[in-house]
C-alpha cells in the first residue's frame, strides 16, 4: 500500500478544463491526508459525524475565511448547500418569490401573473436559469437576450449598455434581477469591476433584489456583496470539488415562513431548497457534502493566508488572461476570439477559434492546436460543444508559469502556421 502520493505526472500536466478544474496541489495533498486520518483522530473527515465538534470547526473555519475573503457583511447568511448551480436556478426564484408573496400579500390578487423576475441573458447559464424560472411558473422576463442583438446571429458574445435594457418598472415590484457574472460556456464576463449596479435606475436599484451567479469567477475579483440580495456559486471552478454550492443571502430576504407565501400566490418550496432551513440550522439541516466543504475551506485558507486574498487572485487573473489575449491579438487573425465585444471577454474562460488562411474557423487547425497543447502537457482545451473552437480556462489554481507555457505554445503555433503558407 503506498504511503506517499505520486504528484510527478500532475506536476507535468497543465489542466485548463472549464470545470471541474484544477485545484492547488498542496490543498489536495492536505485533503488526501484528511480523508484518511483527520487531525490524528484515526478517522477520515468523511467518516466523522457531521454534527461532531470536529466537523463543526471545519465548517465554521470555512465560513469565517470566506467571509474575510469577500468581506461578507454580518447581515448576510452563508449557506453551504448541495444541488449545484442548477439547483440555485430554482432556489433563487422560489425563495425570492416566497419572500415577495409574504411581503406583498395582495400582489397576486391584483397581478395574477405574479411579480416580474428580470434576467440579464448574457450567456447559456442565464438562459437556463430563466427557462427554469419560467418552468416553475415565474413571470420571467429577459431584460436583454444577447443572442438577439444586432449582428449576434443567434450567438452570445456582447452585453448591451444598461440604457438599452428592458428593465421592468420599479413600480411593478420585480421579485429580482438575475445575472451571471461570468458565462463559462460562452466566455462572457461583465467588464471589471463587475456588473454595472451603479448604472441601474435609482428606484430600481434600491428596491429590486439583485442575484448573481458567480460559479465560475468567484474569488477572482472583489464583489460588492452588500449590493446584492444573493450571491451564489458552485464550488467546482475556483473553490473546490463539486458537491457544495455556497449561497450568500441577505438575511432580511430569507422568508421567515415561506409556506405563508403560498396563500398569496407564492410557491411551496421543497424543504432542501428553503434558505431558512439552512440558515436556521447552520448548513446542517441535513447531512452536508462534508468533503467538498472541507476541501473548499482549505482553498479559502490557502488563498487568504498564502496567496494575497481576492486582490492577489485578481491581479494574477488580469495578468494571465492579458498574456493570452495579447497573443490572440498579435496572431494576424490565426486566433479569433468568439466574444465580439472586447471589454466583456472573460478573464476565466478564454474562447477562440483557430482560423485557416481564408480567415474562417478551421477544425483541422483546431485539432492540430489541441495536439500541440497536449504535447506540452496542456489538457482540456477543446471548446464547449455549443460554441466549438478552443476554450482555455485560467481559474485561480492555474499558475502564471503554467499560463506562460500556453502562451509559448500559442506563439509557436502562430509561427508554424505562418511557415505553412
Ligand atoms: C456559471 C455557471 N452557472 C451554473 C452552472 C451549473 O452548475 P452545476 O453543474 O453545478 O449545476 C455552471 C456549470 O458549469 C456554471 O458555469
Automatic annotation (TrEMBL):
SUPFAM superfamilies given in the database record: PLP-dependent transferases
Which residues are in the Aminotransferase class V domain? 15-99, 170-402
Gene3D superfamilies attached to this UniProt entry:
Aspartate Aminotransferase, domain 1 (3.90.1150.10), Type I PLP-dependent aspartate aminotransferase-like (Major domain) (3.40.640.10)
Catalyzed reactions per annotation: 4-(phosphooxy)-L-threonine + 2-oxoglutarate = (R)-3-hydroxy-2-oxo-4-phosphooxybutanoate + L-glutamate; O-phospho-L-serine + 2-oxoglutarate = 3-phosphooxypyruvate + L-glutamate
> Do the record's keywords include Acyltransferase?
no
The pathway to which it is assigned is:
Amino-acid biosynthesis; L-serine biosynthesis; L-serine from 3-phospho-D-glycerate: step 2/3
Record-level GO cellular component terms: cytoplasm
The record's EC number reads 2.6.1.52
Keywords for this protein? Amino-acid biosynthesis, Aminotransferase, Pyridoxal phosphate, Serine biosynthesis, Transferase
Reported cofactor(s): pyridoxal 5'-phosphate
* InterPro entries from the UniProt entry: Aminotrans_V_dom, Pser_aminoTfrase, PyrdxlP-dep_Trfase, PyrdxlP-dep_Trfase_major, PyrdxlP-dep_Trfase_small
Cite the GO molecular-function annotations of the record: O-phospho-L-serine:2-oxoglutarate aminotransferase activity; pyridoxal phosphate binding
* Biological processes, Gene Ontology terms: L-serine biosynthetic process
| Similarity comment: family membership | Belongs to the class-V pyridoxal-phosphate-dependent aminotransferase family. SerC subfamily.
What is this protein called in UniProt?
phosphoserine transaminase
Q: Which organism is it from?
A: Tilletiopsis washingtonensis
Q: What is the lineage of its organism?
A: Eukaryota, Fungi, Dikarya, Basidiomycota, Ustilaginomycotina
Amino acid at each position: 500500500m503506498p504511503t506517499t502520493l505520486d504528484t510527478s505526472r500532475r506536476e507535468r500536466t497543465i489542466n485548463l478544463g472549464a470545470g471541474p478544474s484544477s485545484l492547488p496541489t498542496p490543498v489536495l495533498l492536505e485533503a488526501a491526508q484528511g480523508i484518511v486520518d483527520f487531525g490524528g483522530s484515526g478517522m477520515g473527515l468523511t467518516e466523522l459525524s457531521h454534527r461532531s465538534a470536529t466537523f463543526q470547526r471545519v465548517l465554521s473555519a470555512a465560513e469565517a475565511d470566506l467571509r474575510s475573503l469577500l468581506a461578507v457583511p454580518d447581515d448576510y447568511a452563508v449557506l453551504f448547500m448541495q444541488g449545484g448551480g442548477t439547483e440555485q436556478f430554482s432556489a433563487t426564484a422560489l425563495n425570492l418569490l416566497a419572500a415577495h408573496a409574504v411581503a406583498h400579500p395582495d400582489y397576486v390578487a391584483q397581478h395574477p401573473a405574479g411579480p416580474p423576475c428580470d434576467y440579464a441573458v448574457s450567456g447559456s447559464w442565464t438562459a437556463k436559469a430563466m427557462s427554469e424560472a419560467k418552468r416553475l411558473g415565474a413571470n420571467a422576463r429577459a431584460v436583454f437576450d444577447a443572442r438577439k442583438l444586432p449582428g449576434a446571429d443567434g450567438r452570445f458574445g456582447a452585453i448591451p449598455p444598461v440604457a438599452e435594457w428592458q428593465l421592468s418598472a420599479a413600480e411593478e415590484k420585480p421579485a429580482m434581477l438575475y445575472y451571471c457574472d461570468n458565462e463559462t460556456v460562452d466566455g462572457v464576463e461583465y467588464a471589471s469591476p463587475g456588473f454595472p449596479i451603479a448604472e441601474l435606475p435609482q428606484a430600481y436599484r434600491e428596491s429590486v433584489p439583485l442575484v448573481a451567479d458567480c460559479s465560475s469567477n468567484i474569488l477572482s475579483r472583489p464583489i460588492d456583496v452588500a449590493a446584492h440580495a444573493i450571491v451564489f456559486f458552485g464550488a467546482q471552478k475556483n473553490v473546490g470539488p463539486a458537491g457544495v454550492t455556497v449561497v450568500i443571502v441577505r438575511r432580511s430576504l430569507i422568508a421567515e415562513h415561506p409556506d405563508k407565501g403560498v396563500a398569496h400566490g407564492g410557491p411551496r418550496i421543497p424543504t432542501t431548497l428553503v434558505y431558512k432551513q439552512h440558515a436556521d440550522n447552520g448548513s446542517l439541516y441535513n447531512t452536508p457534502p462534508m468533503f467538498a466543504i472541507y476541501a473548499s475551506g482549505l482553498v479559502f485558507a490557502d488563498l487568504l493566508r498564502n496567496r494575497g486574498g481576492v486582490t492577489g487572485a485578481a491581479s494574477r487573473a488580469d495578468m494571465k488572461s492579458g498574456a493570452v489575449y495579447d497573443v490572440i491579438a498579435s496572431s494576424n487573425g490565426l486566433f479569433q476570439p468568439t466574444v465580439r465585444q472586447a471589454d466583456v471577454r472573460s478573464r476565466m474562460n478564454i474562447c477562440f477559434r483557430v482560423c485557416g488562411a481564408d480567415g474562417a474557423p478551421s477544425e483541422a487547425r483546431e485539432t492540430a492546436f489541441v495536439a500541440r497543447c497536449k504535447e506540452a502537457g496542456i489538457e482540456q482545451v477543446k471548446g464547449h460543444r455549443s460554441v466549438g473552437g478552443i476554450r482555455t480556462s485560467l481559474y485561480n489554481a492555474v499558475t502564471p508559469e503554467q499560463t506562460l507555457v500556453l502562451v509559448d505554445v500559442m506563439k509557436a503555433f502562430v509561427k508554424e502556421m505562418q511557415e505553412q503558407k
